[in-house]
Amino acid sequence: MGALDRQVSVEDFRRLARRRLPKSIFEFIDGGAGQELTLNANRSDFEKIRLLPRVLTDVSHPNVSTTLWSETLPTPLVISPMGSCALVRPGADIAIARAATARGIPYTLSTMATASIEGMARAVQGPLWFQLYVLKDFDFNRQLVRRAEEFGYSTLVVTVDLQAGGKREKDLRNGISIPLRPSARHLWEGMLHPGWSLRLLRGRLPQFENVRGYLGDNSAGLTIAARVGGSLHAGFDWDDFRQIRDWWKGRLLVKGVLHPGDASRLVAAGADGIWVSNHGGRQLDGAVSSIDALPAIRQALGAQVPILIDSGIRTGTDIIKAKARGATVAAIGRAALFGAVAGEAGVAKALDIIQDEVVTCLRLCGIPRFQEAGSEIIA
Fold first, then answer.
1. Cα distance between residue 325 and residue 304, in whole Å
2. Any idea which residues carry the catalytic annotation?
């Protein structure tokens, strides 16, 4: 039995990542801000939800498709934007995107991805979205949006919860910073994980191609990442949002929303949907979990506005719980990235596990169609 055959859950892939990655890299991916109160709540609040199944319903052919805007998705899943994926494995961005889009799952490319807008569009045949971190230089923001439009990205995702980087204590203790300052500790961790080290050396250090040229810096390595991190637009306001809305003629989602009043105002200002997220617990420690914020936002927006949710989703059952609480579609980040430690095949296996769990949960809840999962199945 191969290593992939032994993985039967996303948690198994998380354990595999812990074994195969240096401690500081694993904790950079797996960890959160501060005391990790929000990171832990993201999981515990899903786990607290109990389902109330029905019986004697024909669930012999569960339908897991869902409708997002006017499109039918074969499965109620989206890949969240993630930066620095190449630290797990060179080419991880494209590996995740290929595995996802082969299953009809939209892949969201981060501004700080280690694959370019253009390179991703050439490498992947499938639904692609682009996520924008709003920087102080609005001309550069405009360039990013134009590039995404030119290369056929169907949806723009504007992240609004990164006014500053969260205090990630594990990274500080592990000496993980941007730009990275390698130490004897990092060298020792690399020696203990020779497979990871060799792949990284062959694939070269992560390059952040989408921000090449920002502030006149033509490099794309960790130095430019540091400059971008210092140029987050803390003054981003409603007028700025309306300007971005004017730029982008396609569908626009706003990611990082937890307050129902903000959600309502964003839709009124032109957002086509709301992405409920606390950035995976990596920003404001002590913020409400996404799953607990979701019902009030659904109530504020009514039934028709699409709502996505991420932060803490690890199983197909979590996706059913999110749907019952008001989400249209669920999004995963770490769950896919843990799979990437084993390459594209690992991502594919992780995604298939989650999709199989969605089917099993529907059957055991007595629900023939995913879109019929409502609040009545929550105990």
1. 14
2. 279
